Amino acid sequence: MKTRYDAIIIGGGHNGLVCAAYLARAGLEVLVLERRPVIGGAAVSEETVPGFTFSTFSYVMSLLHPKIIRELELRRFGLEVLPASDLFCPVDGKDFLLLSEDVAKTQASFARFSRRDAETYPAFARHLEECAGLVRRFLFETPPDPARGDLRGRTETLALLWRHRRIGRGFHRLVDLFTLSAADFLDRWFESPIIKAVFAYYASIGTFAGPRSPGSAYVILHHVMGEHEGAAGWGFVRGGMGAISRALAESGKRFGVAIATEAEVAEIRIRDGQAQGVVLADGREFQAPIIAANLHAKLLYERLIGARHLPAEVLADIRHYRTLSTAFKINIAASAPPAYTAFDPERAGIDYPAYVHIAPDLDWLERAFDDAKYGRFSARPFMTPVVPTVRDTTIAPPGRHVVHLFGGHAPYTLREGNWKEAKDRFARTVLETLELFAPGFSSHIIDMQVLAPPDIEAILNLPGGHIFHGELAPDQLFWKRPIPGYADYRTPIRGVYLCGSSAHPGGGVSGIPGHNAAREILRDRRWRRLRS
């Protein structure tokens, strides 16, 4: 393998692969270095149980942007998205709610609980889509630094304001989303706590917050910004989420991207404030004037760059970046999928609920958060059971199923005991909660993998095990993500960039941080050439 490249990407997760593909497409020689034996980061497909392929971490596709799919020709390289189903939300053992792309179908479901809410729903759906449209405007923006007083800082901030000068009353909607709790936002529209929970659920996914926490309204929007067909824009990927990473890798390889696995980076070489290359844990060295880090911002700043190269205020800001997780994932090989007692295929209009949310009302979500606030895992967790094998028969033996359970809350640090002692008890709690709605499912379990936040941290090298690389809170978004002054994908070190989910617009398998970082790298490269 060569030892000198134009650019090195640290981390072969999906954002790193996106960044690498765009840089190589522009003519750069690019090397991707991945610590694990498999590329993909959190978007991987792994045969943890013989014969069963799990999407070990991320489990459905929604946010991967159509622009990236189109420009990198991912369908040509095997990406195939399968419809999940309408979102099925069991209320108890007898009834359920459906959230469907068909507005009339959703209304009919809502009307069983509140006729007023059913009548309100079309206006709410339009409002939510308009709000999503506002946020989508900013996805491909590079956040400026409004506190920067020089000509460039002022010009970039004014240019952003000018581009969005026609946002009008949308500005007030954005302020509401960034400040209101999910409960307060939904109170404006609905009266039924059961219907509110359908949407408040999104505010809790992967977030250490409850539906009554200020700022949680935005997290609803983050999860429904996908522009794909399916249940709230969500779908399964044939072959599991690793198929996204494989397609990205193949797309990059045609432009010359080189990929090395089991290649852990121990240090970024820096001289006179400029990146020189990297040193691996095994002692190998690679040189490049451009380093794009697709890893957690804390690791980049505190470990790979190091305190001696950074201003004190930068170190203080990155220390305060909140990244403790309460999300869990259980991957199950099963002889049969969950059988929900409330499910009736004729009444629901679907063959099987492959995509489910379990949180019957707003208080269920808030109580789950209350437990976590005090260092306990939720006595009644909320969870998303999904069964991709209903649509994708390639990932399990005939007649067998893959079942993923994702939810919360499972605090990174338990007040009493530790996760090694508590994991079996926690898994029983999750399964007992699922069996309130799908009795007898545990008897169909062949084997399973239980991932608490410390497990996610250890496998993916994610501080705190946070699936979004940090809380999606107002103080950690846009021009403050991950820290003030360096939200533009750059760092205090020339040639070192951040291209992962710690950067704008945050976590989820979107590819947008990788795309935007590549754009800024190429912009800087062109500017340096003009100056020279």
3D architecture notes:
The protein is of the alpha/beta class. A five-stranded parallel sheet has the order 9-2-1-13-18, covered by helices on one side. Helix content is 36%, strand content 16%. 51% of the residues are buried. It has a domain at 7-46 and 61-82 and 239-320 and 469-531: FAD/NAD(P)-binding domain. The model has no long low-confidence stretch (mean pLDDT 94). It is built from 17 helices and 18 strands.
Question: Helices and strands in order, then pairings?
Answer:
Elements: E1 7-10, H1 14-25, E2 30-33, E3 45-49, E4 52-55, H2 66-71, E5 81-83, E6 87-90, E7 96-99, H3 103-111, H4 115-139, H5 151-163, H6 170-179, H7 182-187, H8 193-204, H9 217-223, E8 235-237, H10 242-253, E9 258-260, E10 265-271, E11 274-280, E12 285-287, E13 290-293, H11 297-305, H12 312-319, E14 327-334, H13 345-348, H14 362-373, E15 382-386, E16 401-408, H15 419-435, E17 445-451, H16 453-460, E18 496-498, H17 512-531
Quick synopsis:
This protein is of the alpha/beta class.
Mean pLDDT: 94
How are the strands of the biggest sheet laid out side by side? 9-2-1-13-18
User: What is the number of helices?
Assistant: 17
Tell me the CATH superfamily of the domain at 7-46 and 61-82 and 239-320 and 469-531: FAD/NAD(P)-binding domain
Q: Tell me the number of strands.
A: 18
Q: What would you call the structural class?
A: alpha/beta
Strand content: 15-25%
CATH class of the domain at 7-46 and 61-82 and 239-320 and 469-531: Alpha Beta
Largest sheet: 5 strands, parallel
Radius of gyration: 23 Å
**Principal-axis shape:** globular
Helix content: 25-40%
Which CATH architecture of the domain at 7-46 and 61-82 and 239-320 and 469-531? 3-Layer(bba) Sandwich
CATH topology of the domain at 7-46 and 61-82 and 239-320 and 469-531: FAD/NAD(P)-binding domain
What is the straight-line distance between the termini?
30 Å
- pLDDT < 50 runs, ≥5 residues: none
